[in-house]
Every structure is written in structure tokens, then in C-alpha cells.
Amino acid sequence: MTDAFKALRPLEIRGRKAGSYYSLAALEVAGLGRVSRLPVSIRVMLESLLRNVDGERVTEQHVRELAAWQPNAERTKEVPFVVARLIAPDASGIPLLADLAAMRDAARKRGMDAGAIEPLVTVDLIVDHSLIVERSGNADALIHNMKSEFSRNVERYGFLKWAASAFKGFKIVPPGIGIIHQVNIEHLARGVWNKDGVFYPDSLVGTDSHTSMANGIGVLGWGVGGIEAEAAMLGLPSYLLTPDVVGVELRGAPKTGVTSTDVVLTVVEALRAHKVVGKFVEFFGDGAAQLSAPDRCTISNMAPEYGATAAYFPVDEQTLAYLESAGRTDDELDALAAYFKAQGMFGMPGTGDIDYSEYVRIDLDKVVPSVAGPSRPQDRIALSQLKPSVAGLFTGGSASNASPRASSGLPSDGAAYASSALSNGDIVIAAITSCSNTSNPGVMLAAGLLARKAVQRGLRVHPRVKTSLTPGSRVVSAYLEASGLQPYLDQLGFQVAGYGCATCMGNSGPLPAEVEKAIADNDLVVASVLSGNRNFEARIHQAVKANFLMSPPLVVAFAIAGRVDLDVENEPLGHDGDGRPVYLRDVWPNPQELDEVMPHAKDPRHFRRLYSESARENALWNELPAPTGETFDWNPDSTYLQRPPFFDEFEMQAPPVEPLTGARALAVLGDSVTTDHVSPGAVIRGDSDAGRFLTELGVPPHDFNSYISRRGHHGVMMRGTFANVRLRNQMVPDVEGGVTLHQPDGKLMSIYEAAMTYARENVPVVVFAGEEYGTGSSRDWAAKGPRLLGVRAVIARGFERIHRSNLVGMGILPCQFMGEDSTASLGITGAETFELVGVEHGIEAQQTIELIIHRPDGGKTSTRLLVRVDTPIEETYFRHGGILPYVLRQLLKSQEVTHAS
Q1: I want to staple 771 with a disulfide (CB 3.0 to 4.6 A). Which of 446, 511, 550, 797 is the partner?
Q2: 814 phi and psi, to 5 degrees?
Q3: For the purposes of burial, counting CB atoms within 10 Å of the CB of 465, is it exposed (0-12), middle (13-18) or buried (19 or more)?
Q4: Alpha-carbon distance 809 to 780, whole Å?
């Protein structure tokens, strides 16, 4: 570390010098800018620049530019943010590790030291995306699902154990501990770091889009693609354009009966409408000050749902109180408080304290009980309006056309469902799941209290509903048991089914065969209710078309009612043993009841005991065999892990840019196409290209597992690209699913088959889309898959931030229509051929190029496109064919220099 600006100052903790820190106030004294008026999130990034000036990755000019940040300046400069650490779930972590292992193979092949491919920052990988709710609603669900998880994933987990021994900078949190973001805020987030006597704030990037959850306790970080994360691991900063910062003033306090989930759904709706996509959001005001840290984390977690890069709450007394309850030591808490006070960044800002780019005000006292759905988290519905709002879903066979409460009797072959008829609007899945809610004891205890009251009134969950509880960490179970509430959840079928990201990511497990048959035979629109953060089409379960996000206590209540088209104010959830109606208001917990049980959730002994025991008491993990060695011994017969092909044709010199002419459209897509549409995470179907491929490899259908679990096998993943059963390709308007028309013969085939056919014909392909292309989880395979299918460019009305970056990182050109242009206005049907003029000599950031459309009748149309390669470093990545070959070339060149000297 250098001190280019003479800003190093002593840091006192409890009246004694404990070390030093890089003072931001010194920059203001030196005249670099009004640093004390900068948003706190910008100051955290500025400190990273100041501390990491080396003249190469970070220059003095970078510091000067960010110190002089202006709220409404044109954003043309990039910030090379050097983070303290990186975090990843297994879903994206395994492909990331596979790429690193392949890099080691490529280095060794060229006579270099394979061990030089090594993370340069701390990396925590949390195994939390492999749990499937195969069994639920009974006492043995947890152990059954965990044993099944290990059985399915023995190869993947062995690979992770190899990586933990092969890479010095890698730490693994094994399965059964909790969800990545809850484990992060409860255990991994440090607040401040001390390296060689220099204190600095915790910061991170993560390969899950909800990495922003840590913003709720003052840790700046956001989600990046796995491709970008690899560069960060190997020493490159995380680059982003200098952001706008939207100041969100929270006023007042939520009324009695309003939960943190209601608050966050209101925030999501308001900020999505305000268009904060790609911006930082920073909260301030008296309402923000009184929110507990778990409430703040719930809001920060869902930053991707309103499109923000980060959703930051400054460090204050609420932060300290939470970290103390989570078991942090007195020394850690004292250091955190002393550091942020020394920097002038401690405490919740008030009105007028900070200069923001824009201002939004949200009155918390106006928040009402809410849900969101049926397919987007930003589509909030006031609970009182739920019944009339969903009535339009049931006028035909899809989420927009199903007949009102059409019903179908289920077979009476001994199933628990024999006495029930299945109708539109009926609930078949009720899940308390996801980090955004299960990390919040307020709503988890409320769910337990509601369950207690319901059981005492003699209520039971409707027999058709598959119930599950997958807490974010074992701490949740500890305080639900200590408070005496878990037994009541058990009686309603909400036994713990596992600790992991399950239903929210599509691992809801199977429904009874007779239920799925009744849904399909009668084209019913049935529902799921979940306390998660994502409800995109076909994400929760492929047979369930309507999915509603809601608080954990509401999940329990609707599970009892058994249907989503319910007027909770005037219709009962059910009837007690005497036949009397029981309404939601009769079982809803009051503030006094919550106050009585809340101390159980604030006991630091739970956190210390459970996290200290997590490694040594995980027998399934500890007994798992794993290979050793500097490089991985790939098994050519494995159906889970194969060496990634991205370095197969690697050369030390970057290849020349090929012109893009005579291209065909692989798909013409509409608005809000998510990464789930591009790269599904659900269970692999037998009638899919991936299912047929696995069958050819000898895998029986019951072992197909999910796409997420097979992300280490590119043969599966490329066949799963654009394979979502709800994908709507406008080239085939009357068919749902991953199909297209091969041109010019117009033959109907799967998108995978068409891509392979075009590859044999040496025809390049492009994809067209509308607004918000690539929203959803930050899946690297949503870019890797199209790359392997031969996609050269994606031309859309707009892009989600992480996915756009991932496309560049894989050497796919993201282009944006300008003005009012769109596929519809330009009359693009997919029967045309396309040419991009202006790319043949290389790409410059934010340049404009020409799209020429050649019509089948010989006509020709042209229009301008904005190249969404946004920064100079992205120019470099694209010129090298993506981040991975660029990083490898840099590492190999540095080894050549070392060997030569």
C-alpha cells in the first residue's frame, strides 16, 4: 500500500492507537472535492481507490475523479473498485472453479506454473443451491433431503473439496449450514478489516445477484457475473461506470400489522417505477434510522428486483446492535465504530446532509399489507385487493386466460388429495424460503406465532398444499425452538426441509403425479405462495403458472386457506372444531406477542455455537472422499463435470475481429426476458434436448437433477440454453418453449438444434429482444450458453446490468436499439438476414454502428445501434474474446517475464 496523497492517519480504538487508516477528510483538506457531502457509498469506493493506488490498476487520477464526484455529471469514467473479498454460491461457484481449473490446465500445457492461477482475494463459497424439497411436511424431511442432496451431488461436492485444498484463497461453507446471504451477514461480513495494521471497510462482490443484502449492515457490495468474478479473484478490480446515487428518504414507521416484507414490496414497486436500474440507492432519514438491521437487509437484498446495483444503509447504532446479537466480539464492534466515526461516516444521514443525484421519498406509515405476483416481484398488490386482482388470471388456460375457478376432481387412488377438487386459483405450494425473509426474525417469529394461534383454533393446512420451511440458517431453527414456536409450524406441515435456497430458485421438488396431471389435463392456473424474492415464470415449478411473494406469516395463512383468490378481510381462512369461521385477523400476531419472543432471536450464543460447530459436526461432508493435487483429474465419463471448452483453442495473441454478415436470428424475444428464460435452473425434463442427451449418456430420468446442479457440464448447459418451457419466441408465436424456425427453409426445431445446424452451415446467429433483457439471477451460463450456441450479438431495447456485462465477458456483442426502434417497429420477423457495419475493425466503448436488415423479398432497411460495451476495460475484454482469455493471457505473460528475468 502506498500513500500517494499523504492521507494515512492513526486510528484510535478505546483511546489507544490500534493502527492507521486512509483518511477521506485529508482529501477534502487538500482541495480534491467536498468529500464530506458525498454519498456514503461513494466514500467507501473512494477509500478503496485511495488505499490501492499503484499507478496501474488504480491511478491518482482515479482518486481525483471520484473525490470530485458531482451528483448530475455525465458518467463516462470507470471506477476500478478493489474489493476486500468475494462470495459465491455453489450454483455459480462450481462453474467459476471449473474455469480456474481449466486455466491451470492451459498454463501447465504451456510449461507454466499451474499454481500461479490462484485467487488473490479471500473467496467464500457457500453450498446452498443444491437442496431439492423432495420430501416435506413430515419429521424426516430434513435428513432425507440432505442425504438425497449428497447422493445426487457427490461428484460436485468432491470437486469443491479438491478446490478447497488446491486453492489457498478458497474457503467452503458446506451444505446444510444456510443460504449464502444470511450466512454472510450472520458470520462472514467483518465490518472492517485490519491488514498489516491498516484498517479499511469490508466490501465484496458476489456471483449471486442478491449480494447487495450485505448493504443493509453497511458492507458495500453487489452481484457480478461469474465471469467478472473470476477476474476479480485473479487481481483485477471490479470495474463500473461512476454511478448516479439515488437518495431514498424513508419517513415515519410502519403501522401495526405491517411486516418488513410489506415494506420491501412497496420499496420494490416505488424504485422500479422511479427507474433506478444501474444506479446506487442510498437510504437516509428518520424512517431509515429506526429500521432494524434485518429489516434493512431485507430491503437491500431485493435491490435486483428494483434494478439498483447497490442499496446501501450507512453504519449506525442499529448496525452495531445487530452484529452484537449475531455474536461479533467486542473488539470487532469497537473497531467498526471507531473506524466509521473517524471517517465521518457513522450514523444515518438526515435531510440535506448529502448531495444525491436524485431524491425519492417513501412514507413507511402509508405501507399496507401486500403481496407481489403473479410473475414479477415489482408487481405489488395490496392484500385487500388480492381477490379482484387475480380474478383476471382465471379466464382461460394461461396466466391471462383461464376459466373462473374451473375445477377438476382428482383420482381417489388412496392419495391424500382424494377428497379435494383442483380449481383455478388453488394453492399447491406454500414455502417459507429465501434469504430476504428467513434472515429476518420479525417475520419468522410472526409465522410461528400465527401457526400457534391457528393450531390452537383447530386449523390445518389444506391437504393439497405442499408445505416447506427452508430457513436461511440453523440460527432460525434455534430461536424458533427456543421460543417454543417450531412445534406449531410442524403441526401445520412446515417442518424444516433443509437449509438452502430451495423453492425460490426452482428446487421446490415434485408435486403428486395426480396433481400435475389434473393441472395439465384441465389447463389450470394454480398458484404457489412463497416468502422468496423471485417469482418469474416457470421458476418455482413448471406446472405452476401463478406465483405470489408474501411474508412468512401470510404464507402460513394462505396455506391454511388453500386458495389465492381470497378476500382476507371478509372470508375466513377456515373453520375451527366447532364450525366457527376463523379470519386472518383472529390469528395475526400482535406487537406484544412479538416482543415476548424476540429476545430468543437476539441471543448471540445461538450464532457462536452453531457456526463454531458447523464444520466439525457435518458428517456427510467430512466423510466425502475428494481428489488432491494442483490440477484436477477430469473424468471423461462424468455427467456433472467436464473441462470447460473456453480454452480449447486458446492462443497467446488475441484473434482478429470477424465481420458479422449474413447472420440469422436464432430468436426474436419480447420484454422482460430473464436469465431463467435463457438458462433455466429447474429440473431437467425428459423430453428436452438436455434430457435426451443425458439419456444417451446412460443417466436414468430420476437422476437428471436440475440445470443448476449440472452447471459444470457444458454439454448439458448448452442444450438447456433458451430451453425454458415458458419462453416465447416471436418467430413461433403460437408455441411456448425453446423452439425456433431454421431459415431459409422455415423448419420448426429446438433452438439448440437450430444453432447446431447454423454452425454446420457456417452461418452466424444473433438474438433480438425487448426491454430489460437478462433480468433475474446473475447466471454466467446465460452468457456462456449463447456463446457455445454461436450467438455473436444480442440486439435489445435494454439490458440488465449484470447480464450485459456477462455478454461482454463472453465475447458476445450487446447492442441497443436507439430512439423508438424495436423489432416490432422495424418489422423483424426472423426470416431476414442481418449485417452489422462498424464492427469489422474493432469495437470502441459506446460507439454507434449500423444494422442492415436484408428482407426475404430483396428489400433492405438500416438503423443505428448503440454498442453497449460501456467502458475502456470492456473494450479490452471484448477484443480478447472475453474476460477469461484476457486474464489468462495476462497471467501467462507475467510468468514469461518472471522466467525471462
Answers
A1: 797
A2: -85, 125
A3: buried
A4: 9
C-alpha angle 91/767/656, rounded to 5°? Answer: 90
What residue has cell string 463459497? Answer: 125
> Residue 202 and residue 121: Cα distance in Å, rounded?
12
Are 823 and 766 in contact, with CB atoms under 8 Å apart?
no
Rounded average pLDDT over 447-462: 97
Q: How far apart are CA 422 and CA 241, in angstroms?
A: 51
Pairwise CA distance, residues 681 & 889, whole Å: 32
Write out the three cell numbers for 807. 455478454
User: In angstroms, what CA-CA distances link 269 with 53, 380, 564, 648, 782?
Assistant: 40, 6, 21, 45, 26
What is the enclosing helix (H) or strand (E) of 429?
A: strand 427-432
Distance CA 794, CA 804 (A): 9
Strand order, beta sheet including 466-469:
380-382, 370-372, 546-549, 527-530, 427-432, 466-469
- pLDDT, one tens digit per residue, over 62-110 is 999 999 999 999 988 889 999 999 999 988 888 889 999 999 999 899 8
The pLDDT tens digits of the residues spanning 542-591 come to 889 999 999 999 999 999 999 999 999 999 999 998 999 999 999 999 99
In single-letter form, the type of residue at position 270 comes to: A
What DSSP line would sit under 264-293, residue for residue? HHHHHHHHHHHT-TTSEEEEESHHHHHS-H
pLDDT mean over 344-357: 97
DSSP assignment of 739-768: EEEETTTTEEEEHHHHHHHHHHTT--EEEE
- 422: helix, coil or strand? strand
Q: What are the grid coordinates assigned to 870, written together?
A: 460501456
What's the pLDDT tens digit per position in 792-810? 999 999 998 889 988 999 9
**For residues 596 and 450, what is the distance between their CA atoms, to the nearest angstrom?**
14
Of 890 and 564, the structure prediction assigns the larger pLDDT to 564
Instruction: Count how many Cα atoms sit within 13 Å of the Cα of residue 170 in the half-sphere of its side chain.
Output: 29
Cβ–Cβ < 8 Å for 247, 123: no
- Phi, psi values for residue 784, rounded to 5°: -65, -40
| Domains along the chain with CATH numbers | 8-80 (no CATH), 81-238 (3.30.499.10), 391-608 (3.30.499.10), 657-679+721-870 (3.20.19.10), 680-720 (no CATH)
Q: How far apart are the first and last CA of the chain?
A: 25
Question: Other CB atoms closer than 10 Å to residue 900's CB: what's the count?
Answer: 6
Q: Are strands 527-530 and 421-423 parallel, antiparallel or unpaired?
A: unpaired
Q: Are 106 and 651 in contact (CB under 8 A)?
A: no
Count the neighbouring beta carbons within 10 Å of the beta carbon of residue 140.
10
